[in-house]
Design a protein that fits this description.
The protein is mainly α. The chain has one domain. It contains 5 helices and no strands. The chain is elongated and about 65 Å long. The two termini are about 25 Å apart. Keywords: Golgi apparatus, Membrane, Protein transport, Transmembrane, Transmembrane helix, Transport.
């Protein structure tokens, strides 16, 4: 957990981005399947990538919004285990949502819904801030364990 000099390893960074993106969509798929899949006859990628489905005017739209927000919480947990450094959480969180924006633009055009932007901006904030909090807390806990073991060895 404690890091000295930072080694530039682009393959590690690419692998982390791919893993985080896949796990983000996996968690989004699970939440969509539970919340949206019970309300619609047929699940499709429309609910993932079309900005028009992110709406507060229907119950299904609310389920889509909640799915995105829950997957942002899951994304913070993924950052804790794959990144482990609080100072990198914002970078990787932004990468998740920038890639998601690019896929949405390719799938359904530029998102013109204010709700889509608010939900994804909130998701980015939740992922980054909660990921930083969890990583910092884990680092502090690990440091206390090390200090405790050193103290016990000296006694």
């Amino acid at each position: 957990m404690f890091y000295g000099t930072v080694v530039w390893d682009p393959w590690l960074i690419v692998a982390q981005i791919v893993c985080i993106q896949c796990l983000y969509y996996l968690s989004l798929g699970v939440f969509m399947g539970v919340l949206v899949g019970t309300r619609v006859n047929k699940m499709s990628l429309v609910y993932f990538f079309d900005f028009a489905t992110v709406t507060l005017s229907t119950v299904t739209g609310w389920c889509v919004v909640v799915s995105f927000l829950l997957s942002s919480v899951a994304g913070a947990g993924v950052l804790l285990y794959l990144i482990e450094r609080a100072k990198k959480c914002l970078d990787f969180s932004a990468t998740i949502y920038i890639i998601h924006l690019c896929i949405c633009v390719l799938y359904g055009g530029w998102p013109s819904s204010v709700t889509w932007w608010v939900v994804n901006g909130t998701g980015l904030a939740i992922t980054a801030l909660l990921g930083e909090y969890l990583s910092t807390k884990a680092t502090i806990s690990y440091g206390l364990v090390i200090l405790n073991s050193i103290f016990m060895a000296l006694m």
